[in-house]
Design brief:
By secondary structure, the protein is of the alpha+beta class. It folds into 4 domains: 63 residues, SH3 type barrels (Roll), CATH 2.30.30.40; 101 residues, 2-Layer Sandwich (Heat Shock Protein 90), CATH 3.30.565.40; 85 residues, Actin, Chain A, domain 4, CATH 3.90.640; 202 residues, TIM Barrel. Helices cover 24% and strands 32% of the residues. It is built from 14 helices and 34 strands. Helix 2 links the parallel strand 18 and strand 19. The protein is elongated and about 90 Å long. 42% of the residues are buried. It binds zinc ion (ZN). Zinc ion binds next to strand 26.
């Protein structure tokens, strides 16, 4: 923890004023004024405590602020310009502060418009859970500000609170969009707020934290707050002697349901114009009176959780190479807090996200993580995909991809909340890595179709092993997906294949309906074969290589859904086998006779 914080300090950069000039066209110039807070204040020629004193001003004197680097303000008083220490000025902007508002945290993207009209042009799109400073209001609209940008939001889209968003927010803009990440919210649903603050010469701190009455959590909060206080105080004395430093800690404390709670402490340390942030996330099982360790929270499929986190981080950046600092490692999962709709990951500036973006919060929904979390069934049941075994199920499967055609199939499946199984050839994965990621992101299953598509029954055990393990490894690396099933090329299986599958934890799928799409290359013929073969528990074979197959699927999916079929992956289908799924076993369908009845 100490090392991490020091690393953050070294990477610390300006967290505020992130909006570049790209939005200049709609820019409203914000100006700031300052009032001398107490005693008298020197106006100096240069931004330095030893700079030549030009004049001295009394408490209450108004100045215009031209620049502010956090330590020194370049100011104008009458015709005179010079520098004053920022900490001795009470600084105000020229727009009214009405309050803070947050958009709903439900994944909707909100249009911020140039005028108070639903027909006005869209200035930018704000992501859900964004925080805005409200600077004005009329009957149906709020005027809001992000950085230098003012715009209008319909009142219904924004919840305005008097709460503190104490540490502000961070924002990012490119030519078409501004996204605002809520870092600090005022939600304090559990615990009693406690504050410690002290000014000690060059170091001041103000730490607000919850007293939860749960020993394990309270002692962790106390340990962490003392630790960062010491760390930052030491940094100040050793690395910035003579400077003023301050540490502010705020928190969010949520009650998720009758059992789970979470607390996030957010610390901001400032010295001069540098600032650094540190986070503590605690997830609490209130029934047990215990903290939930990261390993229990991510009880399964950690690679998938990391993949979701990585996708969330890359969506914050306009280009993938935009200073992206590498793949998140497993230790980063400890910065996740249970939120309203998903896990909230806290990422300090410079850690996985470019320092210039400031610290960010990345949300990953519980729906995405349903496979990973070790929370109780009562909680997870609301996020799991609901399959009704009393209704017919059908498993569409696609071999020999990924290819240019795969995406079309994935899109139509997504549109109908349907899923399928894509049996990929390992050596094609790298060239189609984006296609594979998207396939997985929509909940489809990836099965192994070997590395080079050989007749596995003609290979040595060692070669079979390598054909399967290489494919599993690259799929996991690219998409986070952990392969559970082998679709052997040509359906060729022998004892060695079954044994290797057992070793590698794979079950084997063949098919009981062959559309012969590879042979007919005809949309109607393939479509007819799908619809004719649609019976409860069937596994249908196709190839995501042909435009005719993609077209047939586009046509068939709505028809199958309309007929009441649930389009499921092979793992979803076989989960209803009365004997469970057995590794090394070959399944060509799930005969309704063998279905579990629940
Ligand atoms: Zn094949």
């Amino acid at each position: 923890m100490m090392k991490k914080l020091i690393a953050c300090l070294l990477l610390a950069a300006l967290l505020l004023s992130l909006l570049p000039a790209a939005l200049a066209a709609q820019e409203t110039k914000i100006t700031y004024t300052g009032t001398v807070k107490e005693g008298s204040l020197h106006l100096r020629k240069t931004p330095s405590a030893t700079g030549k004193v030009l004049n001295t001003y009394k408490k209450g004197t108004q100045v215009d602020i031209l620049e502010n680097d956090g330590t020194w303000c370049k100011v104008q008083i009458g015709k005179r310009t010079g520098y004053m220490m920022a900490s001795y000025l009470e600084i105000k902007a020229n727009y009214p502060h009405v309050g803070w508002g947050a958009t709903k945290d439900d994944g909707t993207v909100i249009n911020v418009r140039s005028e108070e009209s639903a027909g006005a042009s869209i200035l930018y799109k704000a992501m859900s859970g964004g925080v805005f400073e409200v600077t004005g209001e009329s009957k149906d609209w709020y005027q809001v500000r992000v950085g230098d940008q003012f715009g209008y939001l319909e009142k219904s889209a924004l919840t305005v609170t008097d709460g503190e968003f104490a540490l502000g927010f961070s924002a990012k803009a490119d030519q078409n969009s501004v996204t605002v990440a809520r870092m600090h919210s005022a939600l304090r649903e559990i615990g009693s707020p406690m504050t410690m603050s002290r000014a000690e010469g060059d170091f001041t701190f103000s730490i607000t934290y919850p007293d939860l009455g749960i020993e394990a959590a309270d002692s962790e909060i106390s340990r962490w707050t003392q630790q960062i206080r010491m760390l930052f105080e030491t940094d100040l004395r050793q690395n910035h002697p003579g400077s003023q430093g301050s540490l502010t800690v705020e928190y969010q404390a949520l009650k998720i349901n009758s059992r789970y709670e979470s607390v996030t402490l957010m610390g901001e340390y400032k010295v001069g114009s540098l600032s650094a942030e540190a986070f503590l996330t605690l997830n609490i099982d209130a029934q047990e009176g215990a903290l939930i360790p990261t390993a229990s929270l991510f009880a399964r499929n950690t690679p998938w959780a990391l993949f979701c986190l990585e996708s969330g981080i890359s969506s914050l950046m306009s280009t993938p190479t935009d200073g992206y600092a590498g793949k998140p490692a497993a230790d980063w999962l400890q910065y996740a807090a249970l939120g309203r709709t998903g896990l909230e990951f806290y990422l300090p500036a410079g850690r996985y996200v470019p320092a210039a973006l400031g610290s960010r919060k990345v949300d990953v929904t519980y729906f995405q993580l349903a496979d990973c979390l070790g929370l109780d069934d009562a909680f997870m049941a609301q996020y799991r995909r609901v399959i009704d075994p009393a209704k017919p199920m059908l498993a569409l499967t696609f071999d020999d991809g990924p290819s240019e055609e795969t995406d079309k199939i994935v899109s139509v499946l997504a549109q109908y909340n349907a899923r399928a199984t894509f049996c990929v050839i390992g050596n094609k994965v790298e060239s189609f890595s984006d296609v594979l990621k998207r396939t997985v992101a929509h909940g489809n299953e990836i099965a192994s179709h070997t590395w080079t598509h050989p007749h596995l029954d003609q290979l040595s055990v060692a070669s079979i092993r390598s054909q399967l393990s290489r494919t599993s490894a690259i799929v996991q690396e690219v998409s986070g997906f952990e392969i559970k099933a082998l679709r052997p090329p040509y359906g060729a299986v022998n004892k060695n294949v079954r044994n290797v599958c057992k070793d590698q934890g794979l079950f084997i799928i063949t098919w009981n309906i062959d559309t012969l799409d590879w042979k007919n290359r005809n949309t109607n013929k393939t479509y007819n074969a799908i619809v004719k073969g649609a019976k409860n528990g069937n596994i249908i074979l196709m190839h995501d290589l042909y435009s005719t197959t993609a077209a047939a699927v586009e046509k068939a999916v709505p028809v199958l859904v309309e007929k009441g079929f649930q389009l499921v992956t092979v793992s979803e289908l076989l989960a209803y086998h009365k004997d469970g799924i057995k590794t090394g076993t070959v399944y060509s369908n799930l005969d309704p006779k063998n279905m579990k009845t629940e």
